[in-house]
Amino acid sequence: MRTTTAYGTRGSMTLVAGPIERRELRPRDVAVDVSHCGVCHSDLHAVHAHASSRADDLLVPGHEFVGTVTQIGALVAEFRVGDAVAVGNIVDSCGSCDMCRAGQENFCREFPTTTYGGRDRVDGTTTLGGFAREYVVDENFVYRRPTNLDPAAVAPLMCAGVTVWEPLRSHGVGPGSVVGVAGLGGLGHLAVKLARALGASVTVFTTSQQKADDARALGATDVIISTDRHAMAAARGRFDLIIDTISAPHAVEPYLDTIGLDGTLSVVGYLGEISVTALALLIGRKSLSSAGSGGRISTQELLDFCGEHDISADVEVLPSGQINTALERLARNDVRYRFVVDLSDLKNA
Fold it and tell me: How many CB atoms lie within 10 A of CB 13?
């Protein structure tokens, strides 16, 4: 085994730096020196759940990170030491089910191995995440990072970015498409940037008039205050696709009403129970869909597209020593639009 330093917790809301063990490299493994890791709401939820369960096992969060290859296994073909890379929230899958064969490892029938809290498919150990100086991962789940972009701002593309990229691509968004984005947070602001770069006109739905200027600065051509019944009624049947990035429970039927014939509402922010009447879908032959993360093909496609179009996340970077501050502020939604921790200070923790 090899030792590195990471921020983890054993049943507490506070992450503490300490040594952890990584596996020795298997033939197709890559060792990544982690430079930056995004802080996602799912990290916050995982810490809360871990603390509530009073679990004694170690949790190391972090599932959207970038870094540099420092070592490769004997059979690694795609990477060399020194390569700039990125890793997302999936580090393995069965590779043989219909979803994996279709390049949708994120929907693996046997459930993908997640970057932390997952079960290693070889030795059965629990995966420990990217709030660490080093991560060891199969080369199939390592991606080439565009070097023309700020590494810190690339990290959130590996979760928030690919989560909104998949519905944009699967629904054929391009020039002439009319896209709505509900919510303007970590996912929403990237949905606006990506939809605009694909050629769509973009409208942001928000409850806050104060976010109107931000939405337009990101590329939105229009803003609708979703609590304004008259504005929502005026938008009836207007959109081909709405990407709903709102993370809290909310009514989706008002957004379905603004979808046009054969249009789709893709809910990616809230993955709990949703109530919809069949009539809300019937009128206009509308679809309700969801998506989560991305497969290997679409993840690399996203990174290449972002490098070509100079797209990255709007981030606030904190030294990793302030990881607990980032989690506390994230719980208050006090971020614009994504926290990223710089792990270069961790070697001295």
Answer: 15
